[in-house]
Amino acid sequence: xxxxxAIITGASSGMGKAAAELFAQKGWQVFGGARHVDAIPQQTxxxxxxxxxxxxxxxxxxMTAVMQETKRVDVLINVVGYGEYGPxxxxxxxxxxxxxxxxxxxxxxxxxxxxxxMRQQEAGRIVTxxxxxxxxxxxxxxxxxxxxxxxxxxxDTLNLEVQPFGIQATVVMxxxxxxxxxxxxxxxxxxxxxxxxxxxxLMAGVQKMTAGYQANAxxxxxxxxxxxxxxxxxxxxxYFNTISDRISVYVARNHxxxxxxxxxxxxxRMMNAK
Length: 274
What we know:
It comes from Lactiplantibacillus mudanjiangensis. By secondary structure, the protein is of the alpha/beta class. It has helices at residues 14-25, 56-69, 93-103, 105-121, 142-162, 181-191, 200-211, 219-231, 243-254, 256-271; strands at residues 5-9, 29-34, 46-50, 75-78, 124-129, 167-173, 177-178, 217-218, 238-240.
């Protein structure tokens, strides 16, 4: 029996690494891509290759290497991503462009790379990691939220286009997870906090709030959700990790004025936090 094949980006850490390990344990051939190849799990069924999704030449070289090992791609999981946090006015545009090159255009490059093979085999599944913050925005998170919102509408449109070829596209909404995302978020705050900024009270309030934030889900939990999204016979457009995430997104999408009032109050509290 032919082994199923999964390509997983961001396979060197966090959710991507956990997904690579789980799919390999399930008997899949996993081709993991990351900039730090040495950190990709070295175990049976996992093949690690260098991949920088912001570089078209790197994506092309990665796919060439993969197709030398296999003739099919059953699943692509777009995991790699990160967040730039700071006031709209003060985050450098170059940093925003880099964020979008990774979070959004990186997924675009990978999908364009795998679709010819998936169309030829008349089957495939594309799983893209977005985030609830693509719907449930918060102050200082505008650019990260925008990149994740873009992925959602892009994936839904992609799904319409590729269904006739036996391919489905779906989105996973992880929610807060015990990975290195929150420490990186804190580092982003420091990069984009300008001395004497008019937004200092807001930044301090947001940092205080996020510093006390406790993520309950683990990367392994999300790997299980990725596997569901990749293997369900009738995939959903969205896979949420928690009920609370689902409810928050529902409120933000269906009652935008209510959500904005809630966030306005929360922002005022953060501004006054001591």
